[in-house]
Specification:
Layout (H helix, E strand, L loop, with lengths): L1 H12 L17 E10 L3 E8 L11 E7 L2 E9 L4 E8 L1 H6 L5 E4 L1 E4 L6 H13 L5 E9 L8 E8 L7 E4 L8 E7 H10 L5 H19 L2
Parallel strand pairs: 4-9
Antiparallel strand pairs: 1-2, 2-3, 4-5, 4-7, 5-6, 5-11, 8-9, 10-11
GO biological process, one term: ribose phosphate metabolic process
Organism: Roseovarius faecimaris
Function: Acts on ADP-mannose and ADP-glucose as well as ADP-ribose. Prevents glycogen biosynthesis. The reaction catalyzed by this enzyme is a limiting step of the gluconeogenic process.
Length: 224
């Protein structure tokens, strides 16, 4: 599954996006002398020896660069515009743990890998059902972006997922087959925005989705 998902992400990337201000120098202009795969498992890393065109027209000297090869992912902040509240998921995360964070459990939007043959929108609907038992009736695109372009191929498709949220403040979610241990939180809009002020919103996609929601909230509520 991971091999196919990584391959699908590679195919999707070949289409490219806008290049109105950045260089239009193509992928093929980079000269790869050697490529190795130091680690290949659930995660994969690649090591390159390469040269790339410089802005002054010359080629760079030979460079050694490593990249973490990941998949595309869909990330969804479920929002109920009628009741004006959001759902967040909480789970243990290796990134904060490996960094030594005092509290390695994170509040995040719903998220999951875009499998081969899926669109980001299809993944968004599937993951909301699997992680939180939610059926979305609409999707609003927030952004599509690299999360850490200096060292990772991971690409995020971020959405606001329109839905009806239940009255409960906490619940459970996730798939036992994927060993997911997920707690869900339903917060009012004001409580969710308070996470930005307190710093408890530490996941980049959550910060981005909340800021987008603040900009678009009136429109979403007016048409709910």
């Amino acid at each position: 599954m991971m091999i196919m998902a990584r391959a699908a992400a590679h195919v999707a990337a070949a289409h490219g996006t806008a290049a109105d201000y950045r260089s239009k120098t193509p992928h093929e202009a980079v000269e790869v002398a050697q490529m190795e795969t130091p680690h290949q498992g659930f995660f994969l890393t690649r090591s390159y020896e390469l040269r790339h065109p410089r802005f002054d027209g010359r080629m760079s000297p030979p460079l050694r660069r490593e990249v973490f090869v990941a998949t595309d992912a869909s990330i969804v902040l479920p929002y109920d515009p009628r009741r004006d509240r959001v759902l967040l998921v909480e789970q243990f995360r290796m990134g904060p743990f490996g960094r030594g964070d005092a509290y390695p459990w994170m509040l995040e939007p719903v998220a999951g890998r875009v499998d081969a043959g899926e669109t980001p929108e299809t993944t968004a609907h599937r993951e909301c059902q699997e992680e939180a038992g939610l059926a979305l009736y609409g999707l609003e695109k927030v952004s599509a972006h690299y999360c850490s372009p200096g060292d990772s191929t991971e690409y995020f498709h971020v959405f606001i997922g329109l839905c009806d949220l239940p009255e409960v403040s906490q619940g459970r979610g996730g798939l036992e087959t994927e060993h997911e241990d997920i707690r869900t939180h339903i917060l009012s809009y004001e409580q969710a925005m308070g996470l930005l002020d307190s710093g408890e919103a530490e996941a980049g996609p959550l910060v981005l989705a909340l800021l987008w929601l603040a900009k678009s909230r009136d429109r979403l509520r007016a048409t709910a």
